[in-house]
Amino acid sequence: MCSVGGRCCRRFLVGAAICALCGTLGLEFFSPSVSLAASAAQGITARINPGGPENWPPEQGLSTQLPGAQAAPDVQPAPPVRELPPLGTQGQMPGTPPAPAAQPATQPAGQPATQPGVQAGAQAAPDVQPAPPVRELPPLGTQGQMPGTPPAPAAQPAGQPATQPAGQAGSQAAPDVQPAPPVRELPSAGTGTESPAGDKASPAAAKREVIYVDEQGNRVEKPVDPEAVWQEVQSCLEKRQFSDALDKLRILYDLPQLTRDRRLEVLYGISDCLWEMYKDKPQAGYDAIVASTSEALNADLRHDRAPEAYARLGKINLRVGNMDEARANIMALLRQYPLSPLVAESLTELGEEQLKRKMDESAAVSFQTVLENYPESASMEDAAMGMGKALVRLGRHDAASVIMDFVNKRWPRCYLEDTDFLLVQAENLQALKRDDAAMDVYWLFVNLQPRREGNNELLLKMADTYTRGNQWGAAALMYQRIMDLWPGVSSSRVSRLRLAEKGIYDGPLHYDQMSALFARPTEDIPLERVYREVMEASDTSPECVLSRLKYAMWLLWDKQFTQAMGSAADFIDNYPEHPGVPQARDIIWTAFQSELTNALAEQNYRRILLLWNGFPLVRERYGELDPKMRYALAQGYMERGDDAKGLELLGAFLTAKMDPDYGELALTEYFNRYLKAGAWDRILDLSRIVAAWPLRPQLRSQLEYATALSAQNLGLWGAALPRWRQLAMRNDIPLYQRAYATYFLARDAEMRKDVGDAYVYNRQVIELFRQLADERSDKADPERIKESMAALMDICEVANRIPEALDWVKQYAEFVPDAASPEYPGLRYREARLYRKLGDAVRAQFLLEDVVKRFPGTPFGKAAASELRTFEVSRDLKDFMPGGAAAGPGASPAQNGADSAGSPPANP
Q1: Parallel, antiparallel, or unpaired: how do β-strands 219-220 and 212-213 relate?
Q2: How far apart are the first and last CA of the chain?
Q3: Dmax (CA) of the chain
Q4: Residue 57 in contact with residue 110, Cβ under 8 Å?
Q5: What ranges does the record list as Low complexity composition bias (predicted)?
């Protein structure tokens, strides 16, 4: 390497000779056909790398002149150069391609050189003169030898012609240039011999690193030695340094000059390293492992490691859950390499993974293939045990028993390696109803692993087996032992339930079965307390969830219907997918039916409505409302104040066809509400709807009375009078109805001016309403009596039956005993008038004076005063009339007709 220009002088040196320009050791051969004179013809600043770019500016060419030295005008003859051994053989630098063999010294000067790099120069100068003898360099690697190079061959004699330097190629083109003198022999590298210039060799020159450049002169990395890298890979693999090995394998992977076998080894090596790095975390390395293994497999499908590639693809797909792809790779391995030992191993792993994923049928097929075709494989034991597990899961207990007998005979101590196989055996024995043998296997498992996690569940299962076998004593001891050793866990709570219930009461539960349990007397803690404590321990544990359902059943059994409905509804809401939901629905329905019966008996309709609205399951199961529920809900709504909703429900009963149970009740409810509200038109509509109903006579009479009353109030007298006449003549209707019917007939007679009918009906009205008053009926109406008496006073006065009229006045006065009544002055005034008509002027005058005195400012007081004045005028007038004084004051006028009192007057 040139220490001046920094570029390689490989095209100017002979072998490993010293550079004539800068004294640096060369690196490669140059063509002997190139003349040294041509090299001398170049200027010192000329380009020293003919292999560089063709457009390189000459003025920028690198110089070999040392700093401070003058350029020599004439090229001095070089000393004799010692010949180096051919590179690529002994003395060849590691990593360089083999150089062609050097021509013999006796070769004619005109013959072309054998170096491929300088043949062009040899053809351009056919008359090259032989070079002077070159002195042989000492063998590199000994004293002064470069490390790593083999010994050089012996030096030629001084007089023997040496291989012509490359720089001599242009000697004919420069005839003025003299041949170079013999080059002085270089001292051995590493010695203290001085150079011809008198300078000592620099120690750093021998240790200077080798720099590699490309054809453009650019620095490049040192070429890779594939064999050395491969040895490093093997060393990393032995040390299990897979990441480092993978990096080096990728370096080899990128080399194009690898042989086919070595490339396959590299591909499988990459797959091996990736597998070792990611086999415990397959998700992270899945893509890399599949890609590298598939590439290795596809590079040569007949390679010795192809079965391993198929098996690896199957394993990685199994570990990430790609069951279809895993099975496809393993089946390809089975078809193409059926004799490979990896087939049985891969099929066994496939079957085990299928077992984990509950693919029991497929797992049985995988294991059976191993058992039938590879009976001597190392995976035979695992396949047989897996086959037994698969058959037990599939319910083929007889076949499983055969397989397990085979396993126990061929590998009698296999359970020491896989103790879980004992659990499978015991389960199969229980399925075959061989409980005693199963318990022996269970006890063997417990004794082999007494501290195993999960033994509490196993002991619970064993205790349940004893319970089902009517060995309650042993079972109770085991339940108690579980509660003592594992408090607070699921098995402990189940054990407590077993001891409290003295048996196994798991789902599906039936109320009849649980009712018998609840009726059984308890010796220790009451069952409902146990249920509450267990259900409060957890919201998700199966035994706690089941205890909630049992508690709801107990509430129903204890006749706490509302609480039972609430508990069952909570169970359904919290665990809608639980298999006990149908039983919870039955609890709600049964409790509601019982509560409905009680509420109807108590007429507690609001409670029924509350339950109906609070439990949608009741409404769902009840379906279409029947008359009983419809009436109860209607009454509940009306009691709650929602009359519109209640009447809407009752309206379904008011149809042409009468409901035998609730039709009359609905009619009565509507009728009373209409009557109270004075909805007379609605009453008439109601009567038309139920006209054809077979009502009870009393209800029919009531409806007819209400219809007549409605027509009367609406002014439909033509429709009302016929009904009043019928009602007035009936003795089977309530007295108040007859009284009112007669009252309306009396008013009708008065309107028609029928004095006779009016007299008769009013007397009947007074009689009927007085009877009601005597009976202290709430229907007694004094106002109706007063109205009829007033009417009779008018009728008798008009009929000139004054004494009877006075009698009705006296009876009317019984209802106006106090002078403070507003009716009192009018009654006294009327009485005075009647007495005056009767001819008792003194009585009349007394009454009038009393009215004037007590009620002077009232209309009746004023009328009485006016009447008194007429009295005086009449009296004075009588004194002046003929015979006036002869008339006695006690004479009774004959025209009064007092003898006719009590009989209805004739119509005017």
Answers
A1: antiparallel
A2: 168
A3: 220
A4: no
A5: 85-94, 102-128, 138-147, 155-177, 882-898
